[in-house]
Here is the input.
Amino acid sequence: MNNASKKYNIVTFGCQMNKADSERMAGVLENMGFEASEDPNLADLVLYNTCTIRDNAEQKVYSYLGKQAKRKHKQPELTLVVAGCVAQQEGEKLLRRVPELDLVMGPQHANRLEDLLQQVFDGSQVVATEPIQIVEDITKPRRDSDVTAWVNIIYGCNERCSYCVVPNVRGTEQSRTPEAIRAEMEQLSLQGYKEITLLGQNIDAYGRDLPGSTPEGRHKHTLTDLLYYVHDLPGVDRLRFATSHPRYFTERLIEACKELPNVCEHFHIPFQSGDNDILKAMKRGYTHEKYRRIIKTIREYMPDASITADAIVGFPGETEAQFEHTLKLVEDIEFDLINTAAYSPRPGTPAALWSNQLSEEVKSDRLQRLNRLVSVCAEARSHRYLGRVEEILVEAQNTKDPDQVMGRTRGNRLTFFPGNIEQLKGKTVKVKITEIRSFSLTGEAI
Here is the structure.
C-alpha cells in the first residue's frame, strides 16, 4: 500500500514507557511513508496508545474512540488502532465494544506495528495480544524531543502488587543486552542528544533474566553494572533512570550514582503507602522503615539529591490512622515531588475483588489532603535553590512566555529563564535562581 501523503496521529496516555513506545511506533509509521499530523481529524491513521493504571484514563480512551468511530462511518478508509495496556487487557472485547477498530495490539507488539498494519491493509481486523519474546528493535523512534531521549532497558514486570495491572498487560520481565542498549545510546549521542533516561517498569530488576553471575554470587548484569557500562558516551551530559523499586534498591547503586559524574542526583522511588499493614496488603515487599533507610543512605552520599515518588491513597481497608502514617512519611522525608493517586480498582487484580473498598468521597478527601501537603513540602525543598547557581539543560521555549526558555536542573526541577531558544536549545546554561515555587523555578542566566 502506498502511504505517501498519508498522515498519522498518535495520542499517548500514561507513563514514560508508553511515551517511549509511541516514539517507536511513530518511527515505524514514518518509515512506512506516513507524515505526522497534530489533528486526529485530519489523519488517515489514528493510534491510541493506552494506559489502564487508572479507570479515568481508560474511560477517556473510549470517549476519544467514539468520536473517531463516528468519523469512520463517513470515511471508511480511516485506520483506527488501539495499542498499549487497555488493548492488552481487553483484547477482542474491544472489537465488540468498538467494531470500527482495525487493530488492537498490546505493548509487547509495538515493534511489529508495520507487519500488523500490513494485515489490516490486506483486509483483516487484527488482535495482537498474545505473549511474545521481544526481539531487539531495529526501528528508529521519532523522538518528541531532540535534546532528551528515553531508552527502554527492560520490558515487563514480575512483581505482583495486589493493585497493579502492569504484569497482566506488559508481560514478564525481559532485559535488553547491555550491548544493544549502548548501541542505541551511541546513535543518540551521534544525533546530538544531551540527556538520556533509562526506562523500566521496575528498573532495578534489570538483568535478572540475563545469564551469568559474578564470583561474589550476584547477577552478572545489574542496573549498577549497566550504568558503569554506558555512562561515558561522548556528548551525553546527563543520564537518568526510572522507575526504582524499594525492594531491590541497593547501596551499591547509590555509590555508582555518586561516583559517575553524568548520572544525575535524582531518584524516583515510589513508596505507595507509609503504613506497613497497607504495604503488606499491597504485596510491595518492604516496610516504611526500609524505605526511610534507603532515603537516609541516599542523602548521606548526596545530601542535595532530589527524591520523587508515587503514592496511593484510599487503598481497600485503609483507615484514617493508616492514611496519617502516609502523611507522616511525606512530612519526615520532604519529597521534591510525589505523583499521587486515589486507588482505582483494575480488572484482573486481587484488590479489585476485596469487599473493603472505600467510598469515592473518602478517597477524594484523602487525595486532596495529601496533595496539599506534597505542595507544601515541595515548596520547602525548592527554597534550597533560591540564590543558587544551577546548571540548566535547555529543552524548549516556555509555551506561556515566548521570551523565556525552559529546562531542568540535574535534580529534575523545571526551571524558566529569559533567553532565545534558537541560541540556547541543547546547551547547559548557568542560571541564578531568583524565584521558587513548589514544582518549578525561575532565574537569570549568568
